[in-house]
Specification:
Blueprint lengths: L1 E5 L8 H9 L19 H10 L2 E6 L3 E10 L4 E8 L8 H15 L4 E7 L6 H6 L3 E3 L5 H13 L7 E7 L1
Length: about 170
């Protein structure tokens, strides 16, 4: 049984390990293996996103917290910063359930869309989100907020040619 619930501050110590485990799948994608060893969100960042009210976890009976999603409410969208599913539990629909929880939160607050940035062409990134109803945005449709997110990712060392921004209208 999987239960989606709001993230609480006492969950924070478990979240970096989930994100690290989630990144292990990148070891199988040529050129992006380094992501498995990359930095994860800090405890302070998790606490800030929890305080902002856009953070939920997937808790599994007999395992504990298996996944999380966090984001920020913006004027035009709920922006998803991270969806991470523990490697042992990937491919079971947990990420989809977290996205659905974010959709409900956005709809309940009159937010018209979800946005995120992700890797192009990586099966569990852009194609996955397309299957969930997200559309890849070209540069003309980014807007200043998403352009700034992609610029910050480039400054942080992410290969910008392999990144994209996506939107799902609600």
């Amino acid at each position: 049984m999987i239960r989606i619930r709001p993230t609480s501050p006492c969950d924070v110590p478990a979240l970096p390990g989930i994100e690290r485990s989630s990144g292990e799948i990148f070891r199988q994608w040529a050129g992006l293996e380094w992501i498995a060893d990359d930095d994860v969100q800090s405890d302070d960042r998790h606490r800030a996103l929890i305080a902002d009210g856009v953070a939920c976890v997937a808790e599994m009976e007999g395992f504990g917290i298996a996944a999380f999603l966090n984001g920020t409410v913006c004027p035009d969208a709920l922006h998803i910063w991270q969806v991470a599913v523990h490697r042992e539990h990937q491919g079971r629909g947990i990420g989809r359930r977290l996205i659905e929880a974010a959709q409900r939160l956005a709809a309940d607050h009159g937010i018209p869309s979800l946005t995120l940035t992700t890797f192009r062409a990586v099966p569990w990134n852009e194609p996955y989100y397309q299957r969930l109803g997200f559309t890849t945005l070209d540069n003309a449709r980014l807007g200043p907020r998403l352009k700034a997110v992609l610029d910050a990712e480039q400054q942080a060392g992410l290969p910008i040619a392999q990144r994209c921004a996506m939107r799902k209208m609600l």
